[in-house]
Amino acid sequence: MMIRQTAFFAAAAGALALATSCAAFAPALDVGRTAFRASPAVVQSSTSDRSSASKTQLSMGATIDLKGKVAFIAGVADSTGYGWAIAKALADAGATIIVGTWPPVLKIFEMGLKRGNFDEDSTLSDGSKMVIDKVYPLDAVFDEPDDVPEDVKTNKRYAGLDGFTISEVAEQIEADYGKIDIMVHALANGPEVTKPLLETSRKGYLAASSASAYSLVSLVQKFGPIMNEGGSVLSLTYIASENVIPGYGGGMSSAKAQLESDTRVLAFEAGRKWGVRVNTISAGPLKSRAAAAIGKGTEKTFIEYIIDYSKANAPLGQDLYSDDVGNSGLFLCSPLARTVTGITMYVDNGLHAMGMAGDSKSLEGRA
After folding, report:
1. pTM beyond 0.85, yes or no
2. Which of the residues 136, 205, 214, 238 is marked catalytic?
């Protein structure tokens, strides 16, 4: 459910300043969809008599055409996450979609696809359904086969699976598709996310960093060589990287800060080495299955409190839908953003800009 072209890219330009079922915080909505639509597909202008040194040949009035492009989304296991929303936006623009799914939930996800459990959330702007061309088992905490410990190899949830490390998945995708054009990192996991930082163990802290931040570095390392020049890497972050969000613990705030810093460094290194862009979206809170798993209060879950807080205090007091992030992801992965790299784009109704909570009790009675 995507915006019409003009509204979408005007919003994206004005905005320039989380994902899998195993994610610690991959906020995404399962309670509705935006009414806006982005018309799929930027094509190059047919006029070429202008100076190429001072003018882009991309027309804002054109539609985004990603036909012939291959997009790999790492971290899709259901239809409620931001990874799914970005995949759908890219598919609506014509891209071929392939995904990487955490092995312990792979069979459940594949069965859901087969049974049509996600059909309602797969509808594209022309009425057709998004097709996931291939699903790869992917455990992004392992870079090479030798990294996989024996207890994982013998775990029944990994039974019958191999080739799920990052390097192996990259090799399989290269064999199946040659080079790809888009890679989306929709991965996050913090085993101690419900613990305050003061109670977080070294093991839990490093696990959050490994799964949520270093996984992006490793993916760019392994996928960069099989990406076409002009390709795009996109990840998902959260405002806890720079502001204190009580309840979002276990080292996850630190991991998101790492992710944003690494985005800037990778934008330089991958840009110079392969001509690939690297950006991240700081998405507002939404109720995905993964986010709902974070600590429950007496009446509402953590994420429900955060959603209410956002609506009460963000400049735009409106619902934020997963497709809003999908549309922004489409922009960043499209030729329209060909000169945009190394940024954190806030898609949060402006909440990141606030320095004071408008609904604070301390402000009661203020004129």
Report:
1. no
2. 238
